Every structure is written in C-alpha cells, then in structure tokens.
Amino acid sequence: MATNDFLPFAAAGGANVLSQSDWSALAARLSGYTAGVASSAQINKGLRQSAAMATMLGQFITSVGGLDALDNSDINALLANFLTTYRDQSPNYVGTVGGTSSAMVVTLSPALATHRVGLMLRIVPTAANDPGATLNAGPGALPIKRLDGSAVARGDLPGGVPSTLLCIGTAWVLAGIAYSEIPRQVTGNLTFYVRTDGNDNNDGSADTAAKAFATPQGAVNYITRTFAAGTSTATISIAAGTYPGVAVQWTPLPLQFLGTGAGLSTIINNTSTAGAALVVQSGRASAQNIQFNNSTTAFCVWAFGSGAAVTLISCGYGNSLNGSVAATFGGSVILYGSGHVINNTSNKPRFLFAESNGVLAVDTDALVTFTLVGNPGFTSAFITVAGSSSAAMVNARFSGSGRGLRYLVSRTSNINTAGGGANFFPGDTAGSADATSYGSYT
User: Fold this and answer.
1) What are 283's strand-pairing partners?
2) Domain boundary among 180, 203, 228
3) Lowest CB count within 10 Å: 102, 201, 210, 290, which one?
4) What gap in Å lies between CA 76 and CA 259, rounded to an integer?
5) Closest by CA position to 195, among listed 125, 147, 258
6) Distance CA 408, CA 385 (A)
7) So what's the pLDDT on residue 273?
8) DSSP letter string over 261-299?
9) E strands within 78-171?
C-alpha cells in the first residue's frame, strides 16, 4: 500500500485553533507575524490549513495514483508522483460498467453530484452499446451522443475497449469519431436479415426478432452508412410478410434482396412515397422471389440513373400506377429466371418501360418465363421503349393473356425479339413502331 507521510495537524474536535471568522479578520494573516508574542491558536490555525492541503495532496497521490507521498525533502519525486497521478486521470476512469447495453451505469468515488459541463469520463463497457444508449454516472441518466449530435449507433462503445466521454450538461458526447462513422472494409459476402417483428435499430446479424431489421430500407441504410465501397455482395434476406418500399440512392456494396417466404409471400408494397416499391438510383442491386406492388405515381421496380443496374429473378409484379419495371436516364434492368408473375388486378399503363437511354434485357443464356394472371390490361402498351433506349427480349417467353397494345417503340429506340414476330408480346392490339422517329421493332 502506498504511504502518505503528510498527516493532518490540529484536526481533533475542540482543537486549539482560531475561528475562521477571527482568522479572516486577523491583520497578521496578510502581513505575517512581527516581533513579539503570537497566540498558540493563531499559529495552530495557519499550521492546520497548510497541513490540511498537504494531507489532501498526499492522499490524492496515494489513493488515486497508488504512489508514495513521502516527507523526505525530495520535492522532485513528490512532484513527479503528483503529475503522474494527475495525468492518469484515474478519478474519472471506470473499469467496470453496470446496467445494460442500452442503459449503462457507472459508480464514481467520490460520487458525482452534478453533470458538470466539460467533465471527462473514461469507461470500459462490458458489452457493446445498443443504439441510443444512455449513461448514468450518478446524478441521473443522460443520452450518449456522437460529435454531430446524433444518438450513438450500436457498437459505438465497444465491449472491453475504453471510451472517452465529455459531459455537455444534457448529454455525454463521444470524444472523437464514433465507430459507426468509420466505413468498414469488407473481405467476404455478407448476409443481413429482415422480418416483420424486427427493429431497424438492430444490426441484422441474425434471423431473430432481437437482431433482424424490421424493413428492407433499414438494412439498406445500415449497409450504406457502415461499409466501405467493395465488390462483396450484401444479401438482404427478407422473411415472409409485407414491407414498405425501398429507395437505394447509393450503395457501397452490390445488394441482393432475397425473399425467403414460400412462393411470393415476401411482399414489398409501396404506399407512402411517390417512388417505387424498389427504386435504385446508383449502384447494383438484385431482387429474387419478391412480390412488388406500388400504389403511388411511379413503378414497381425502377432503375433510375446512369449508375443504376437492377437484376430481377423470378419476381411478381402487381398493381402500379405507372408500370411494373422501368429503366430510365441510363438505368438498366435485366430479368432472369423461370417464374416471373404479372398479377396486377387493375389496368396499368405498361409492364416494361425504357426511356432516356434506359436498357431492358433478359438472360441471353436461358429462357426467362413470364406468367400473366387474370388477363391484365395495359393502357399504353405491354412494353414501351423510347428516347434512345433499347429492349433485348430474345429469350423471353410469355404465358397467359393480356389486353392492350403489344408494344410501342419510338424516338431512336429498338425492341429486339430476334424474329419473335408481331405477336411476341401479350396483348390484343397490334404493336406500333414509329419509323418516322426511328423507332424499330425486330
């Protein structure tokens, strides 16, 4: 045990010392004693105050720093031990954090009475924090925030690793960049889980309610803010159920939306935004075994922009106000698989749409089958291609019947069926190729 040689003086009850009011009024306190006789109470008061400060500093060195405070005239050693203790900031270091991952609790000695602005605290959480975690250091729980003022994300305070926090009075703020703000490098493919009883504050690491996301958008947002750009695929495994629409403005990794419900029981149904059930503006994304519906002003699936590349595998396409599958402004959509289902119950303008350098295509190595259910109607045409766009549909095969124009192509665009003939596409009205604007149907 460390030794403190600096001990209290005249600290006993009823000690022979001047009262504090008399000491404050004593002229000799300012000028010092002159020749003559000073009362013992006056002398003892000054000695006690000096001894009290020396005792306190010695106790700080020994109790907090675990170092000796020796009265051996070695001022340099005493100063070194004091500076070591001060620099270690041991009073504000807590190696054991109690509570839970969402409501952490630490106990300081002496106890923290108020949330003093500027106070620094270093803690070592037992386990990584939950999103929006709080910390109670004595006066009550305060939220833990990042430097930008947002709530901490899961794992911003890793388990077993010291984290430094600054008090701003109303919150504890992480000192430095949070883990969630540093994009992680990916060396292999990843899988994230979505289910209706999940939570978008989770990390999607397991197919359980405690870990899975509640929406595909929650998974996309997590991937976008968490990972650095790479070529590994991030699979978003979506359980049976109905989910809101998904917007992918940018993605650091290629995304694969995989419906795991039987048949087409994984449903993405956009009702709240004027977009699409799935809209991709930049990056690569694929979707498989998912039913897409959209009751707003756009499409079921939409590749929107020159950086957008969408692959669809055996999906379903229900009601939509503008069409089912669209590639516009340089976006591309390629369809694979034997099991696409066109099952809209009300008329829609079109099933396939390419505009402004959009590209539509099907697999060139295997047949891609489409089944029309219930004789759906198309008010524009089953497929519409315009504005320097193209549709390569050679291996497409259709079963079932539809109503409306079979195809419509114009303005320096082309639909290629490789000799499929005028009745290649579903419909009950002949298609139209506007040769005057260089629209061609092959």
Assistant:
1) 308
2) 180
3) 210
4) 71
5) 258
6) 6
7) 66
8) SSTT-EEEEE-SSSS-SEEEEEEEEEEES-EEEE-SSSE
9) 93-94, 98-99, 103-105, 120-123, 134-136, 141-145, 163-167
What is the tens place of the pLDDT at every residue in 84-94? 887 765 667 77
Cis peptide bond prior to 110, omega within 30° of 0? yes
Instruction: Indicate whether 37 and 78 sit together in one domain.
Output: yes
Q: Is 329 left (phi over 0), alpha (psi -120 to 50) or beta?
A: left
d(CA 176, CA 160): 18
Residues of the chain with pLDDT under 70: 88-91, 273-274
**Which of 158, 180, 202 is the last residue in one of the domains?**
180
Measure the CA–CA gap between 360 and 259, rounded to whole angstroms. Answer: 23
For residue range 205-215, what is the model confidence (pLDDT) as tens digits? 999 999 999 99
The span from the CA of 285 to the CA of 279, in Å, is: 10
If phi over 0 gives left and psi between -120 and 50 gives alpha, with beta otherwise, what is residue 305?
A: left
What's the CA gap between 38 and 365, in Å, rounded? Answer: 109
Work out the mean pLDDT of the chain and round it to a whole number.
92
Res 90: pLDDT? 61
Q: Could you tell me the CA-to-CA distances from 384 to 106, 279, 335, 405, 435 in Å, in that order?
A: 65, 19, 16, 10, 15
* pLDDT tens digits, 339-383: 999 998 888 899 999 999 999 999 999 999 999 999 999 999 999
pLDDT score for 261: 93
H or E element, residue 340:
strand 338-342
